[in-house]
Structure formats: C-alpha cells, structure tokens
Design goal:
By secondary structure, this protein is mainly alpha-helical. Helix content is about 75%, strand content about 0%.
Length: about 350
C-alpha cells in the first residue's frame, strides 16, 4: 500500500459511509428483535435504546479491510491481519453476548488476556526490553487495559466512538509521517467506522454500540498502538500510543481508584466517570463530551510532536501531559458522584448559621 493522500481519504470515506448506512439497519434490526438497552439503575436514558450498533462498526471495518486487501494486497503481514481481525471479531461477539446475557467479568477478562497473548504469539506484541516474558506481560497488560478503557468510555452518548475516532486519526498522522502505510490505512478505516457511527450515536443517541462495539474498537486501538514503530528508542515508540490513549487511561484510572476507595466493585456500572463528573459541574452533555474531545485532540497533536522529536524531548512532553491529566483527575475526584459523598458535600456547604458568628 502506498502513501497517496487520496487513498487514505478514500478509505475513510468508504468506511465512514458504510457504517453510516449500516447503523440505521442495525437500529431497525435491534427494534425488531428486541435487543434494547432498557433504562434503570445507573443508566441515564429514560426510554429503551437499540443495541447492535457495534455490529455495524464490525461489519463496516471488516468489509472495508477485506475489499482493500483484495484490491491492493499489502506487501506483508496479511496472516497477522487475518489473526487480528479474527480476535477483534471474537471479542465483539463476546461483548454482544455480554450485552444480551451479562457474562461474568472474569470470563471477559480471561478472553481479553488470551487475545493479548495471541497478539504476542503472531509477532504483534510490544517490544520494549527484548525479554520475552517481560514483553508478553506488557503486551497483555496494554491490550486488556486499553480494551477495557474504551469499553468503560461507552458511558455517555458519543464518547467512546468519538475518542476512538480521534485516537485513530492521531495514529494515522503519526504512522503516515513515519512511512507506516498499512498502519495508517487501518487507522483511517477504523476512524471512519467510529465517526460514521457517531452520526447516530451523538447526544441524543439513537443507538448504542454496546460492549460488542466497545471491545472491538478498544482491541483494535490497542493493536494499532503497538504497531506504531518508528526510528528512535523503543521506549518512545511505546510512549507515543500511551499519550494518544491517555484520556481513556485517565477515565479508567479515576473510576477504578474511586470505586475501590469507596468499597465498590470496579466492574460494576456507575455514573462516576469523567464525563459524568463534568455534567455534575453543570456542563450540558454535549459540552461535556466536546470538552473531552478537545482534550483528546490536543493530546494527539502533542503525541505527533513527540514522535518527531528526540527521546528526551518526547519524554518531557509525555511527563507534562501526565502531570496535567493527574491534576485534572485530582480535581474531578472531589466532584460528588456517590450518595455518601453528596451527603458530606451538603453537610459542609449547607451548615446552619451559628448565632453570633461573624
């Protein structure tokens, strides 16, 4: 595959258009079969919303890749690509089954670990230290972490799809400028699917992607991040995708830590994500989601810069991004999102006046 700009544009337009077209089909199919996300509990919607949006994303991306491979076969890596697509589709099926029947989190975790190990087995794993067992552990940790991060991001209309699209566009820019044309093409295809789906998923959402779509997107974002390799130190090659995905990583870390500290299971649902906390601060849903988008776009630009500078400068940029997100995470931590935290908040802010107090 060459690096002509019109080919990338064609990949994006075809995949986005296909997903745009297939998503209403998925809506009608979900309504006809009763595959609906029912309101209640921690969920914010008030009426049933169709699932199966993830299937439109899966079919669009797999179909686009298959057609592109037939028209312009890649010079190498076709076997790896087949394995990766099979793993991604397999996780999408697992996610769909979870949407329908609530699988155990342990089952999903085991399968995600298996998918990460399979990537390493076909030579698509992380290469940082050159030690087999260390690299396989890092590969599995990265795949499981990013896959679940994007699954957790599917908590507000348009958030997961939009951030996946932004991350893939960031990958595309980095890969294209470093001559990784296959990675650039796959990134554009996945970005097109995510943003084509976003047309029907932005607030107020007409359809949800469900765990099937979120696991599919998350796994492929993790894989493409591993494949971003360019001239320079190995640590920088791995550092760049971490920066690209840092907003998703922040949300996962914030939710996991806050739930553990308050005695909740990190696997349960809840309205304690970064986006929910922004809404609690008074932002409308669209503005809260757009704010997260803006942060992700800015960070992706910095990741592109980090991929083009020397190792020391790249680490400085990464540390600055990390410190900034840490401060944001600490500030969002204090937003009252749990019943007991709201009680404490009101007890502090609404104390009765003390007679004679100045």
């Amino acid at each position: 595959m060459t690096g002509d700009w019109w080919e990338y544009l064609l990949i994006f337009v075809v995949s986005a258009g296909l997903c745009w077209f297939l998503t209403p089909v998925a809506i009608r199919l979900a309504i006809r079969t009763g595959v609906m996300d029912q309101p209640g509990g921690h969920k914010g919607h008030r009426s049933p919303v169709p699932y199966l949006g993830g299937m439109a994303i899966v079919v669009s991306f797999a179909g686009s890749v298959a057609v592109a491979a037939i028209i312009r076969p890649p010079y190498s890596g076709i076997d790896e690509l087949v394995v990766v697509l099979a793993l991604a589709v397999g996780l999408a099926v697992v996610g769909l089954l979870d949407d329908l029947w609530d699988l155990s989190p342990l089952v999903r975790l085991i399968l995600e670990i298996g998918a990460g190990f399979a990537l390493w087995q076909v030579g698509a794993g992380v290469q940082i230290v050159g030690s087999g067992w260390v690299d396989v552990v890092v590969t599995v940790f990265w795949v499981v972490g990013v896959t679940n991060a994007f699954n957790l991001l599917d908590n507000m209309d348009g958030l997961a799809a939009g951030l996946a699209g932004i991350a893939c566009l960031g990958y595309f820019a980095i890969a294209a400028t470093n001559g990784q044309y296959l990675v650039a093409g796959l990134s554009m295809g996945l970005a097109g699917c995510a943003l084509g789906f976003l047309r029907h998923n932005f607030h107020p959402a007409r359809i949800y992607m469900g765990d099937g779509g979120a696991l599919f997107l998350g796994f492929l974002v993790a894989y493409l991040g591993i494949k971003l390799r360019f001239d320079g130190a190995r640590s920088v090659s791995f550092l760049v995708p971490v920066v690209v995905c840092s907003v998703a990583i922040l949300d996962t870390t914030l939710v996991t830590v806050s739930r553990l500290v308050t005695g909740r299971s990190p696997f349960e649902g809840g309205r304690d994500h970064m986006s929910h906390r922004l809404v609690k601060l008074g932002l409308p849903v669209r503005v809260a989601v757009a704010s997260v988008y803006s942060a992700a776009v800015g960070i992706s630009v910095l990741a592109l810069v980090a991929s083009r500078v020397d190792q020391v400068s790249a680490w400085i940029l990464a540390v600055l991004v990390g410190l900034t997100l840490f401060v944001v995470g600490v500030l969002l931590w204090f937003v009252p999102v749990y019943p007991e935290s709201r009680s404490r908040h009101f007890a502090i802010t609404e104390q009765p006046e003390v007679p004679g107090a100045g």
